Amino acid sequence: MKHFLSTSDWSREDLDALLQSAAELKRNPINSRLKGRSIALLFLNPSMRTRTSFDLGMQQMGGIAIVLQPGKDAWGLEFDAGTVMDGDAEEHIAEAAGVLSRYCDLIGLRAFPSFVDWSKDREDNLIKSLAKYSSVPVINMETIVHPCQELAMMLALKERMGDVAKRKMVLTWTWHPRPLNTAVANSALLIGTKFGMDVTLLCPEPDYLLDSQFMDQARQNASDSSGTLQISHDIESAYSGADFVYAKSWGALPYYGRPEEEYELRKKYRHFIVDEEKMALTDNGLFSHCLPLRRNVKATDAVMDARYCLALDEAENRLHVQKALMMNLLGAEQ
Ligand code: CP
């Protein structure tokens, strides 16, 4: 059975087909191909775009979405095997996945890392546990990667650029008052390299490099796609000649679980904000961000309101790519 846990599990050809299907769904959004079908959406963390776009996407194809927030409006879940469940969780994922598989045709999960122990969080065990116990396809709605966001970003880029191969993409770290999940940064690195872009990872210092599993996979992707992957700590040369700037803030992994210490590191780097002066260094480059975004912290008002900002296109595309994905996983393609 095919799941959508990471784009690394999907071939470039299969991802291209999803993007083509999404473009067609963008032109013709309403159909009844998923009539009578359903998806359970499990949110362990907040969401606006993901929740709305999956729920609406299912409705636009004749299906329904059931939104559950374990620990709030549904029983809290235990994901570890063999645990004596005498803590807060009332239900094990084994039963929850089994029951939801009897009711629904798809299950989505958002489960951010715990921000305590990266050696544990980097294993992505919550989504893997769900996939293990589920008898229907599972969709990653953001864990330590955010593959739906990858598809939306790539569709937005292809809409403006056509072929993205050999175009310079800068994935820039930005300031934020606290250390955030690395998921979107990991994902941006994976999809840019998978599609043959010349990707520069710009971050203030080596402590902000991403986990080796994603750096290694991105290098492999670049090798397979004739793209490149470079690391830079220099703002001016990284932005110079860029076709696309993608911004995200994330926490320094060596300080994982120690936000006060990490703050001492990050507080020096407020100047990584994306502003017009930096964008002027690009080759009439495009800009995007996954949203939500703190204006004038991660990027200025002028950048967010510029014609070159794709953030709303990318957010809209979440709807179209996820519809294509649900159709694909259910064998209901056009
Ligand atoms: N980009 C994204 O996933 O948005 P939400 O957190 O609002 O779902």
Which tags fit this structure?
334 residues; alpha/beta; Rossmann fold; 2 domains; five-stranded parallel beta sheet; four-stranded parallel beta sheet; 13 helices; 11 strands; 40% helix; globular; binds phosphoric acid mono(formamide)ester
What does this structure look like?
The chain contains 13 helices and eleven strands. By secondary structure, the chain is α/β, with parallel strands linked by helices. The chain folds into two domains: 7-145 and 318-329, 3-Layer(aba) Sandwich (Rossmann fold); 149-314, 3-Layer(aba) Sandwich (Rossmann fold). The mean pLDDT is 98. Bound molecules: phosphoric acid mono(formamide)ester (CP). Phosphoric acid mono(formamide)ester (CP) binds next to helix 2.
Order of helices and strands: HEHEEEHEHHEHEHEHEHEHHEHH
Major sheet attributes: 5 strands, parallel
Side-by-side strand order of the widest sheet:
9-8-7-10-11
Radius of gyration based on Cα positions: 20 Å
Associated small molecules: phosphoric acid mono(formamide)ester
The coarse overall form would be globular
Average pLDDT works out at 98
The tally of domains stands at 2
CATH hierarchy: architecture of the largest domain: 3-Layer(aba) Sandwich
Share of residues in strands: 5-15%
Measure the end-to-end span.
20 Å
DSSP helix fraction: 25-40%
